[in-house]
Amino acid sequence: MKQINIKHITDLHNDALRGLEFYSQELTILQERLDEIAADNTNTEVLEKVDHFQNQFIIHQRYINDLQHDLRKNLKHIEEEVVTTSGFFGESNFTENEYLYEQFVTEEKIFNELRHEFNRFAAQWM
User: Fold this and answer.
1) Which end of the chain is more exposed for a tag (fewer CB within 10 A), N or C?
2) Strand, helix or coil at 63?
3) What share of the chain is helix, strand, coil (3-state, %, to 5)?
4) Contacts 24+ apart (CB under 8 A), 81-88
5) What is the pTM (predicted TM-score) of this model?
6) Rounded mean pLDDT of 110-122?
7) Are 67 and 2 in contact (CB under 8 A)?
8) What is the mean pLDDT of the chain?
């Protein structure tokens, strides 16, 4: 059976956690800009877009929080594995770790698309 070094997985998870923390902070900044736009514009079209972005920001924040929780939980599981396997993990356990990291990469892509969409909107209405 192929074994994977746990250090590699923990490094990926820690990178993902740092990335998610960055995106969480970025959401705070985007929300502040959205609040400014909402305060300065009462146009129905603008308010509809403000509502859209508000909802998207809430969804992404919840997803980021859930993914952070899952990654931390998995890191705890990895720590427990270290005790019993001398720093390596069976390939079957790797699948879960790979899935979590893929979720991060997908969130990163979707978040960046949302940020670019929002920045185009903000440039038009700020």
Assistant:
1) N
2) helix
3) 90, 5, 5
4) 81/6, 82/6, 85/3, 85/6, 87/5, 87/6, 87/7, 88/3, 88/4, 88/5, 88/6
5) 0.87
6) 97
7) no
8) 89
Tokens 């997908």 correspond to: 106
Going by C-alpha positions, the residue among 23, 29, 4 that lies closest to residue 105 is 23
Among 71, 20, 52, CA closest to 122? 52
Which residue type, as a one-letter code, is found at position 105? Answer: V
Measuring CA to CA, which residue among 91, 25, 115 is closest to residue 17? 25
CA nearest to 122, candidates 65, 52, 37 = 37
- Residue 87 phi, psi dihedral angles, 5° rounding: 90, 5
Residues in the chain: 126
Does the pLDDT at position 1 exceed 50?
no
Round to whole Å and give the CA distance between 14 and 22: 12
Residue with token string 């994977």? 4
**Which token pair is 51?**
């509502």
